[in-house]
């Protein structure tokens, strides 16, 4: 009897396990990707001491500004028609004062602001002589400073050694003190676009000591020559809308890390053949110049802009003197409208540049200063299924222009 009862229990247990096995979806657990919308549940561990930041209660905040409880380290004073900087509490790390009518930066406002890491004073009316001497240099934690769209006529000096990103675009800067950049060894991004800088101001090896500088924007100034003594670390160089007419043949020998170069709207007439023989160059913009012939294209280059020049014929052999299947050229996009082409470039381009997807011809200039249309304004190479899958949908529009690109815009500050 006992053995019979034991057999019945075993059969019932086996049937229950079998049913559970049939109802359990193993594929759901192992094959389906986890839902990223729901983060992992936090489990409190009593053995760990959790420290909650301490702030004054209530948190002090000037009545002119807003200090959100959810962001207790930030103070928002923007778009409030302020004419003076309010006193800043000691715990504030991010200060936003853009779009006001502030004319002066006084030391009194920053007496207690020892924790500040970011200051945004853009879009105000600040003048250089109205900035108290050393007011920024005393902020020993400052990393980012915005002073663009003001009325500065001189590079602000001195600045703290901790500074990493400095924005001075859209001012009237025409003075650069000799020691102004000497201590800025941690700056990675410097924006000086839309000022009054000329060649004489950059002759003193100002940038050579900036060992960590990765991006410098000098567009819309008064330069006639390439800026000298740029640091070895530089990756992004913006020189649009100047009057530069020539690039020295060995200019980039000291800048091997250059990834993107923008020199549209200058007076370039001739390019030394091997000047862009750079192993990291990805984007090259030479549009709106006076170029008449092609030049060597490095294998790393992906986007080439040579629109609005005086090119009548494109010699692909000059651009690509040899084909190496093991190290193919990466060029994917060429823009060459507003030149003087009478026919598309040689079909050899697709052998030399196997990754090319679009050649944009658009309208061409005729000999009597009229615009003519090539039979094929846009040439697109047929993509293999693998290439099609890799291509980003919407990356390029039907007219050959890349979406989201603003022709005269300089590098986005956080591109690196």
UniProtKB/TrEMBL annotation:
Residue numbers spanned by region Disordered: 385-416
Keywords associated with the record: Cell adhesion, Disulfide bond, Extracellular matrix, Glycoprotein, Leucine-rich repeat, Proteoglycan, Repeat, Secreted, Signal, Sulfation
Keyword Signal attached: yes
Superkingdom of source: Eukaryota
A GO cellular-component term linked to this record: extracellular matrix
Subcellular localization, as worded in the UniProt entry: Secreted, Extracellular space, Extracellular matrix
Family annotation (InterPro entries): Leu-rich_rpt (IPR001611), Leu-rich_rpt_typical-subtyp (IPR003591), LRR_dom_sf (IPR032675), LRRNT (IPR000372), SLRP (IPR050333)
Coiled-coil region: none
Cited Gene3D superfamilies: Ribonuclease Inhibitor
Signal peptide region: 1-19
Domain LRRNT: 60-94
One Pfam family here: LRR_8
Keyword Transferase tagged: no
Biological process terms in GO annotation: cell adhesion
Biased composition (Acidic residues): 386-408
Subunit structure: Binds the alpha(V)beta(3)-integrin.
Family: Belongs to the small leucine-rich proteoglycan (SLRP) family. SLRP class II subfamily.
Function: May be implicated in biomineralization processes. Has a function in binding of osteoblasts via the alpha(V)beta(3)-integrin.
Record's protein name: Osteomodulin
Origin species: Pelodiscus sinensis (Chinese softshell turtle)
Source lineage: Eukaryota, Metazoa, Chordata, Craniata, Vertebrata
């Amino acid at each position: 009897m006992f053995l019979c009862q034991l057999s019945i229990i075993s059969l019932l247990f086996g049937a229950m396990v079998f049913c559970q096995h049939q109802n359990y979806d193993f594929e759901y657990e192992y094959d389906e990707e986890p839902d990223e919308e729901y983060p992992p549940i936090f489990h409190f561990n009593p053995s760990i001491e959790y420290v909650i930041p301490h702030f004054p209660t209530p948190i002090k905040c000037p009545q002119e500004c807003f200090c959100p409880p959810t962001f207790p380290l930030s103070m928002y004073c923007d778009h409030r028609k302020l004419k003076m900087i309010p006193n800043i509490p000691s715990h504030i790390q991010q200060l936003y004062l853009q779009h006001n009518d502030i004319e002066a930066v006084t030391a009194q406002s920053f007496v207690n602001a020892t924790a500040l890491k970011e200051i945004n004073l853009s879009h105000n009316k600040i003048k250089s002589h109205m900035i108290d001497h050393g007011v920024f240099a005393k902020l020993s934690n400052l990393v980012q400073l915005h002073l663009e769209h003001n009325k500065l006529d001189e590079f602000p000096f001195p600045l703290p050694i901790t500074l990493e990103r400095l924005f001075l675009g859209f001012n009237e800067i025409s003075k650069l003190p000799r020691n102004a950049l000497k201590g800025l060894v941690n700056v990675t991004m410097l924006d000086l676009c839309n000022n009054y800088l000329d060649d004489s101001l950059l002759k003193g090896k100002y940038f050579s000591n900036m060992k960590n500088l990765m991006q410098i924007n000098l567009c819309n100034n008064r330069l006639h020559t390439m800026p000298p003594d740029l640091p070895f670390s530089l990756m992004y160089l913006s020189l649009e809308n100047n009057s530069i007419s020539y690039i020295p043949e060995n200019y980039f020998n000291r800048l091997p890390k250059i990834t993107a170069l923008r020199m549209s709207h200058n007076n370039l007439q001739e390019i030394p053949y091997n000047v862009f023989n750079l192993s990291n160059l990805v984007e090259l913009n030479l549009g709106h110049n006076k170029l008449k012939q092609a030049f060597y294209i490095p294998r790393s280059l992906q986007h080439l802009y040579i629109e609005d020049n005086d090119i009548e014929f494109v010699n692909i052999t000059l651009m690509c003197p040899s084909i190496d299947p093991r190290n193919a050229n990466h060029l994917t996009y060429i823009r060459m409208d507003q030149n003087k082409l009478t026919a598309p470039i040689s079909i050899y381009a697709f052998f030399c540049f196997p990754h090319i997807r679009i050649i944009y011809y658009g309208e061409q200039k005729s000999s009597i200063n009229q615009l003519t249309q090539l039979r094929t304004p846009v040439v697109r190479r047929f993509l293999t299924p693998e290439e099609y899958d890799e291509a980003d949908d919407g990356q390029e529009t039907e007219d050959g222009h890349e979406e989201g690109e603003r022709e005269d815009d300089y590098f986005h500050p956080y591109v690196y």
